[in-house]
Amino acid sequence: MSAAKIKVLCVDDSALIRDLLTEIINSQPDMEVVAVAPDPIAARDLIKQHNPDVLTLDVEMPRMDGLDFLERLMRLRPMPVLMVSSLTQSGSEITLRALELGALDFVAKPSLGIRSGMMEYANEIAEKLRAAARSRPRQARHKNTPPPTRLKAPMISSEKLIIIGASTGGTEAIRAVLEPLPANAPAILITQHMPGGFTRSFAERLDRLCSITVKEATDGERVLPGHAYIAPGDQHLELARSGANYVARLNDGPPVNRHRPSVDVLFHSASKHAGKNAIGVILTGMGKDGAAGLLEMRQAGAPTIAQNEETCVVFGMPREAIAVGGAVEVVALDDIPSRLMALVAASGRAQRV
Q1: pLDDT one-digit tens code per residue, 98-152
Q2: What number of CA atoms fall less than 13 Å from residue 3's CA on the CB side?
Q3: Exactly one of 86, 92, 135, 193 is catalytic; which is it?
Q4: Catalytic annotation on 193?
Q5: Does the global pTM surpass 0.70?
Q6: Could you tell me the domains of the chain?
């Protein structure tokens, strides 16, 4: 007896996008479109009628805005939602708000050649729908959510670094790690799987929320305490040395583990140039990117942390890292910031002895 197919409801005001998503999804052996809707009002009845496993959702639609619908949906009937977003500055900011409201992930609509562009994304769309169907619902972040208590920073050396990798569900997980950190936390380098055009908005949003300075990394810039550097969405980020200083390096080399930026590329560079002075963290995400690199960091003497299954949206990347022996510790998401500061403090005491 074959397994039940993943039931998908597509909500988009563009008939072309609805048709293309239906074609892509129905070509997969393990999923099917059970209904399509031109707007959220029509979608409400179809959700009740078909009980879909996953929803694809456009943002700008008639009769009800996609974000308004998403906020109500996640409050009244939480379910996995994959956003279908435009690759624009305003589109990226709206998409990040959708992730805060509880959407699992997003795919970007091409600006030109919509049919050929969407077909190029076919495998990515199918993979994200599979991940969504298996995902763990998470608490949405609302506008009136109070900020977390800021942690106190131990005495640190400018040599200390925190290196973070994440994918599906990672935008909110990274926020949860960075927001409690004090302004003088160690320098942080981050690779989050995200297409070009979204990472700058992501960095700007985090910068408004955090005590530390958060920015999109630029090639050759010095890596400083109190700053977090996010890999641009279409370039690998690496840690390098320039004399006595750490610097960020960007390159447009081939994808690694099908990703650019790749977590493994960042982790490998940290193991090479920082060794035991770095702390490696792998967060929620599908696939295995980062597992080999986290093991390299551990073998170079770095403390390493994997997010635990219970708090992951998708326990793919942490599971793979744990399986190969890359994680020294497995920690719940909300406990990671304080654990990082404790590891930094312990390292400082060891250096003074």
Answers
A1: 999 999 999 887 766 678 777 878 888 999 999 999 997 666 665 566 677 778 7
A2: 6
A3: 193
A4: yes
A5: yes
A6: 6-134 (3.40.50.2300), 161-352 (3.40.50.180)
